[in-house]
């Protein structure tokens, strides 16, 4: 197998949002927007409810449960991770935040994509609208008591929803600092 990182990448398809690349024996996707970065927003309301979103995802042909998320800089070039996260939180859930803190950045699927995701903690939440996404999205917002969030997710899985695996990392980050200390 050719794992030579110096081998030249070859774009075999490019669309509006994604491109497919072949480098040696590897095939993977890249985001076409600057940075190739998305943000997942960990948000707990003043009533101690975790915000989740439900939407139909075409690649899975199924409804999914996720934490609010979106592409960084897809609307405004050079937009910070924090500003993108707050914008996406408001668009998808109808909640805004006074502060957003990047907790960590890592790959979403290191064997299939160059995309990275930033886990962002949103604090100082206040409701400013209904949410539901933009005109191209059909998002249902769920407010789940924090102490029931894990059980609720298991119930949703049992009902046939696809669950983004990053949900479990996000729930852990609600309760812990990255060094494992409880919050």
TrEMBL record:
PROSITE patterns assigned to the protein according to its UniProt record, in alphabetical order:
NUDIX (PS51462)
Its required cofactor(s), as named, are: Mg(2+)
Q: Does the keyword Hydrolase apply?
A: yes
What are the record keywords, sorted? Answer: Hydrolase
**Annotated Nudix hydrolase domain residues:** 34-175
Task: Quickly give the catalysed reaction.
Answer: GDP-alpha-D-mannose + H2O = alpha-D-mannose 1-phosphate + GMP + 2 H(+)
Transmembrane helix is among the record's keywords: no
User: InterPro entries, per this entry?
Assistant: NUDIX_hydrolase-like_dom_sf, NUDIX_hydrolase_dom
* SUPFAM superfamilies reported in the protein's UniProt record: Nudix
Q: Which Pfam families match?
A: NUDIX
Gene3D superfamilies noted in UniProt: Nucleoside Triphosphate Pyrophosphohydrolase
Instruction: Give the matching PANTHER family.
Output: NUDIX HYDROLASE DOMAIN-CONTAINING PROTEIN, UDP/ADP-SUGAR PYROPHOSPHATASE
Q: Indicate the family of this protein.
A: Belongs to the Nudix hydrolase family. NudK subfamily.
Q: How is this protein named in the record?
A: GDP-mannose pyrophosphatase
Q: What organism is this sequence from?
A: Stenotrophomonas nitritireducens
């Amino acid at each position: 197998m050719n794992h030579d990182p110096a081998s030249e990448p070859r774009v075999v398809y490019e669309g509006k949002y994604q491109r497919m690349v072949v480098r040696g024996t590897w095939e993977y996707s890249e985001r076409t927007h600057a940075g190739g970065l998305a943000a997942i927003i960990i948000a707990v309301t003043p009533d101690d409810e975790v915000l989740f979103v439900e939407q139909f995802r075409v690649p899975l042909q199924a409804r999914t449960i996720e934490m609010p998320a979106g592409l960084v800089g897809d609307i405004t070039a050079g937009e910070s991770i924090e500003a993108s996260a707050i914008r996406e939180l408001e668009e998808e859930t109808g909640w805004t935040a006074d502060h957003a803190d990047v907790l960590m950045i890592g790959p979403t699927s290191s064997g299939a994509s160059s995309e990275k995701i930033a886990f962002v903690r949103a604090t100082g939440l206040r409701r400013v609208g209904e949410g539901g996404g933009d005109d191209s999205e059909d998002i249902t917002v769920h407010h789940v008591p924090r102490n029931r969030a894990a059980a609720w997710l298991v119930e949703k899985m049992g009902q046939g929803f696809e669950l983004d695996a990053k949900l479990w990392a996000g729930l852990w980050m609600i309760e812990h600092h990255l060094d494992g200390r409880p919050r």
